[in-house]
Write a structure and sequence with these properties.
Blueprint lengths: L5 E6 L3 H12 L4 E4 L7 H4 L3 H7 L1 H4 L10 E6 L2 E5 L34 H5 L14 H16 L26 H12 L4 E3 L38 H7 L3 E4 L3 E7 L5 E7 L5 E11 L3 H9 L25 E8 L14 E3 L15 E3 L5 H4 L11 H11 L3 E8 L8 E9 L5 E6 L4 H20 L4 E5 L38 E3 L14 H18 L8
Parallel strand pairs: 1-2, 1-9, 2-6, 3-15, 9-17
Antiparallel strand pairs: 3-4, 5-11, 7-8, 8-9, 10-13, 10-16, 11-12, 12-13, 14-15
Length: 551
């Protein structure tokens, strides 16, 4: 039986959906926020390093860690393989209230103005579906500011000429440099780089009624034991609940969006914690499940008017899938440079996100988060044994002497990199599962090599006695930085939504997550996803008349 109709259903309580739920409920709309996972609590999870290494953020964020959840990935030569969350190929996407913001590294960059005008800045690229965003940095700047102040970011915007323009400073001072950063800072300056403190969605001082970060080394991939890491689970979602207008329903697995014969979204069909099928009607539906799961939900939302899925009239839902082509270098030092103060990453260089001669785009470089001992077993230079006594001796001798610098390289979108739904494989609830296909654009590897060489030069200048670089392969990954599958644009023939995240042809259906990204920047995208949550919400609040939209 359908539930009582509400003004809005938001599907997914992550970086975008949490913001939307708060903004709409604070504006007086009644909201149901559906989340397939539960509430993340440190007392349930603690710092279990081994489990975290096996399950990644999924487990530490109370994610879908059993075989009820499946995905299909390519094996090569037309062969497909079904994987479950305990397998690396499944990907790293959390499922809980707050989603990845409950356990992420919390790096909080704004995209640069050029990131919204990549095609205009550099020109088209053969083999790429590169386009400009339909909005500019100036459009989104107030939303970045609101995210920084409402959710909480620590940083210093005055340190580099490459920071984009802003109206207000960060609300908190930056976190101090750790020991690796103290080694790296003078070396960066000698090379002509402009080192900066990494802006973090993590309290450097008491903020929002919650304490300052205690610099626990087990930070990234774990829930914060003192609640100093800022996500939507401990900021905007509690604020939404406090309005009295927002109900959060956990362990609720969305199946599809019901589209009526007039082409309007009527309701969300979902399965509750007991596996019962339920239907929640609403005036407005906002999809914010991640670039993979949002695409899946729309593709599974088939109707008479949209037989290939909601918003998929032009076969664009799920296409242009991007994550980040991570690249960098690792250096071995003759002295102990390890610092047990988490999260580890404190210093960055953003000089190479744009402005490298002959290179379009680029990426940021940061020192790495603390690698715990189990994870360190995978950090070996080329030719070093990966098992046996020599492997163990390397572990003992070098755990405190290795330092990595890496960063997210902006990828060039391609139509063939896509998420669709498998025609035969279904999950526990009988829903067609995600199938991922396609490769990166070859140009991504060229940029990655350039970024890796900058990282290696930095390590050598800092005194590394041995260095080696790492660049990605052509295979399509499923990282936590996924984006692009429901890109925004002005032309329905080349985009899934308009500039406000409103699905073309379905005016009361919206998307509000990284799926909207036309390009994914050379930065961690969390703050941009939050900013888009505010952007989409602002439009809904301004234009919704109670029964329809003004424009």
């Amino acid at each position: 039986m359908p539930e009582r109709k509400v003004n809005a259903v938001v599907v997914g309580a992550g970086a975008g959906g949490g913001v939307v739920a708060k903004e709409l409920s604070a504006a007086g709309l009644t909201v149901v926020l559906l989340e397939r996972g539960g509430w993340p609590h440190f007392s349930d999870l603690y710092h279990d390093e081994l489990t975290s290494q096996v399950y990644g953020t999924l487990r530490q964020a109370l994610g879908p860690d059993d075989e009820r959840n499946r995905r299909v990935v390519p094996e090569g030569d037309g062969v497909w393989r079904t994987v479950v969350p305990t397998e690396g190929a499944y990907g790293n996407i959390a499922a809980c209230v707050g989603s990845g913001t409950a356990a992420y590294g919390a790096i909080a960059w704004r995209f640069m103005p050029q990131d919204f005008r990549l095609k205009s800045t550099y020109g088209p690229l053969e083999g790429s579906t590169l386009e400009d965003w339909p909005i500019s940095y100036d459009d989104l700047e107030p939303c970045y500011e609101k995210a920084e102040w409402e959710i909480g970011v620590a940083g210093d915007h005055t340190e580099s000429p490459f920071f984009p323009p802003r109206r207000k400073p960060y609300p908190m001072p930056p976190h101090p440099y750790n020991k690796p950063a103290i080694f790296l800072e003078p070396a960066a300056r000698k090379l002509g780089y402009h080192p900066v403190h990494i802006p973090m969605l993590r309290n450097s001082v008491r903020y929002g009624g919650r304490p300052a970060c205690i610099h626990c080394r087990a930070c990234t991939g774990f829930i914060c034991e003192v609640n100093a890491k800022n996500g939507t689970h401990n900021t905007v979602i509690p604020a939404a609940i406090a309005t009295g207008n927002c109900e959060v329903r956990i362990h609720s697995m969305a199946a599809d969006v019901i589209i009526d014969d007039r082409g309007r979204a009527q309701a969300v069909r979902y399965f509750d914690a007991d596996g019962r099928e339920r239907v929640q009607p609403a005036d407005i539906i906002v999809v914010s499940c991640s670039a993979t799961e949002s695409a899946r939900l729309l593709l599974n939302s088939r109707s008479r008017l949209f037989p290939q899925g909601a918003g998929n009239r032009h076969d664009l839902v799920g296409r242009n899938f991007q994550d980040h082509a991570y690249a960098g270098a690792t250096g071995m030092f003759s002295e102990d440079i390890y610092d047990d103060a988490g999260p580890g990453a404190t210093i960055a260089v953003i000089d190479f996100n744009h402005g490298m001669p002959g290179i379009r785009g680029g990426g940021a470089l940061t020192n790495q988060f603390i690698t715990l001992p189990y994870g360190f077993t995978k950090k070996r230079p080329p030719g070093e044994p990966s098992w046996g006594s020599s492997h163990k001796e390397f572990q003992r001798r070098n755990f405190r002497r290795l330092l990595g610098i890496h960063g997210p390289v902006q990828e060039m979108p391609v139509a063939g990199a896509r998420v669709d739904v498998d025609p035969t494989v279904k999950d526990y609830w009988g829903l067609p599962v995600i199938r991922v296909s396609g490769t990166r654009h070859p140009y991504d590897l060229e940029v990655a090599r350039q970024i890796a060489s900058k990282a290696e030069a930095w390590l050598k200048e800092a005194g590394a006695t041995r260095t080696w670089t790492s660049i990605p392969g052509m295979g399509r990954g499923l990282s936590s930085h996924q984006a692009g599958t429901c890109r925004m644009g002005n032309d329905p023939a080349t985009s899934v939504t308009n500039r406000y995240g409103q699905v073309h042809d379905i005016d009361n259906l919206f998307v509000a997550d990284g799926s909207l990204h036309v390009t994914n920047g050379g930065f961690n995208p969390a703050l941009t996803v939050m900013a888009l949550g505010y952007w989409v919400s602002n439009y809904i609040k301004k234009e919704w008349r109670g029964t329809s939209f003004r424009s």
